[in-house]
Amino acid sequence: MSDRETIEAEIKAFIEAAQDVSVEQAAERMGARGGLRRAGGSELVGPCLFCGGEDAFSINTAKNAWNCRKVGYGGRDGISLAAHIEGLPQNLDRREDFLAACGAALGEAVPDGAEESEEDRAARQKKRAAAQQKAQRDAKKREADSNRYREASRNRARERLEARRKVFDGFGFLQYLALRLGCAPDDLIAMDVLPPFAGTIPDEPYFHTRKNRKVAEKLGAWAAMALPVIDAGGATIGAHITWMDETGQKGRPSIPNPDKPHETLPTKKMMGSHKGALIPLLGFVSGPDGTIAPRAGCDRLVTGEGIENTLALALAEAGTALFARTLYAAAATLGNLTGKADPKSGFSHPTLKTPKGRPQRIAGPVPHPDFLHEAMPLPAGVTDVVQAGDGDSEAAMTLSAMMRGETRWRLLGAQSACTLWPQMPDGQGGFPGCGFDWCDVIGGAVAPATEEKETV
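and the corresponding structure tokens:
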């Protein structure tokens, strides 16, 4: 092998090693990782080592991606990140720039004798262009596959909703809601607090995928309450399923986790999509095109994370002037209710620690301006929003989330937004972390227990 062939072999190995460097590895080697903080899941945000700022730079370790909002672009490999931090051209057309980026990603010097002829440069640019085109094709395919999976999941949700029954001989959704709200089934009907789109699936199987297994295992079957999940346009894009058992705690079965026998599995699941959507409970009507829309004249929304907690407030307000002008809807998850937080507003929990002994980070009270519409939508015509606070969740996290939700509703166009925290008739509670929720309150006394106040 000639000297030139030896050099080219070294350079080839050098480039291949750089191509194996992940975004996170490159960030760590170049000192860009230390200033980032976790913004939820696999996303890290913070200042850009090249551009500065406070939170313009982010990396996603799961997607192996980085982005800098200061310059308006990002990438999906360690080489492109290294080039950005080094201030090299984005396209890396010059071999010298490309090798410099590879060296920065690896934390190594570029091999000697790496000069490039015009012929070699043209060949490399052609190869790079082909790789970029392949990456674009692969990205389109992943997006198409994701869209197909999402639509298939939504179709399965719609199929389960078709199995709903309004009348059920046994412990159905009417009996379950009456049990949770502490009243007789006939009272729910008489007070017009029975969700019109709810129904009972008689024998809904419960599937669970065990650790390190690809095929879901059927763990049993119970009657289940099913409600639609609708997007901002009223189209059904998912289903919320609650398995029921008259003999179980809170009217739901106890399903042991096969991987952790001392733990139980959740008895509520979502099918299809729920992000940026809502579960219509009361005040919604069916449209001629199969959509579900807010009833005309409703300018107030009462909403909460869960179905039962939201309906508890509806039961408290039944028969009042407020009830007649109110929509009642659930968000299914706290994140879908209050939205994504601006990372800059995050803070350390006053007492809770991570397994490593560090203060646990809490998502802050300020909504992220770029993700306002990726949570529960504000129904048309609504000017006033009331959030049903949950007093049996962790106090600091819940309070911060509810404050964020109030601000988000106002940014979406609501004139007022507040949170009602559960309070017993004797004055107990009325604050986050009080130890009970609205079902506990209403189950003891069907009457409004606190006035509407904005969280401060």
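(Above: one complete record from the training split.) The chain has three domains: 3-116, 162-273, 274-456.
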